[in-house]
Amino acid sequence: MRELLHYAPGYLDQQMGRIPMGRAGDPRELAAVAVFLASSGAGYLGGQTVVVDGGRTFG
Question: How far apart are CA 19 and CA 22, in angstroms?
Fold first, then answer.
């Protein structure tokens, strides 16, 4: 998680409290959503916004 090193100390811990799932997301979780959207299983979806944020925008 090298890309997170530029945040101020304590920032990520503060943000974890705002995520209902209580943890940072894994890039594989976002990839799984992308694979689903590219599959035939998502063939009837249209005009949707899929938010992959651990429930932060919902909670």
Answer: 5
